């Protein structure tokens, strides 16, 4: 029912907490389905994950830029988010509270995208299990291989 790349995105977001990989997986899907369309729901989800990637690394400026871009896309993607099994109002509140935290100087904390489709959640949790990670656990802030993943990227 949902694109496999989206399921993988959610498993990375909630399981591995590898936001860089969230970007990679969903960017591939976006480029296949809506290349160049910057207001896409896929771009919104990518930008939200990347804002958390920057915040976790202490790059508040980068986090602020990306969370603002996420907010700009929210209202025009309400129906798309609902179709992806996301509770729009809870997600909107999460994005806004994340922005407030960034602006206030709060430290990173792991967040969960509010998915309300139980079948989708089962698929995501099963994939997390297959990968050997727990769904919904907080980021391990000592895992530099994930926190600074962009530094290890092969071009």
Automatic annotation (TrEMBL):
Gene3D superfamilies: TTHA0068-like (1.10.3450.10). Transmembrane segments: none annotated. InterPro entries: DUF309, TTHA0068_sf. It holds the Pfam family DUF309. This is DUF309 domain-containing protein. It comes from Halobacillus seohaensis. The lineage of its organism: Bacteria, Bacillati, Bacillota, Bacilli, Bacillales.
């Amino acid at each position: 029912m949902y694109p496999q790349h989206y399921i993988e995105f959610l498993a990375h977001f909630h399981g591995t907490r590898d936001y860089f990989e969230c970007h990679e997986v969903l960017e591939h899907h976006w480029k296949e389905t809506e290349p160049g369309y910057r207001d896409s729901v896929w771009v919104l989800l990518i930008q939200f994950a990347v804002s958390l990637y920057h915040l976790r690394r202490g790059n508040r400026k980068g986090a602020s830029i990306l969370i603002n871009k996420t907010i700009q896309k929210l209202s025009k993607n309400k129906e798309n988010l609902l179709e992806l099994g996301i509770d729009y109002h809870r997600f909107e509140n999460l994005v806004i509270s994340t922005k407030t935290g960034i602006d206030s100087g709060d430290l990173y904390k792991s967040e969960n995208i509010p998915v309300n489709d139980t079948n989708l959640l089962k698929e995501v949790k099963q994939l997390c299990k297959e990968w050997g990670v727990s769904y919904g656990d907080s980021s391990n802030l000592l895992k530099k291989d994930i926190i600074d993943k962009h530094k290890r990227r092969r071009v």
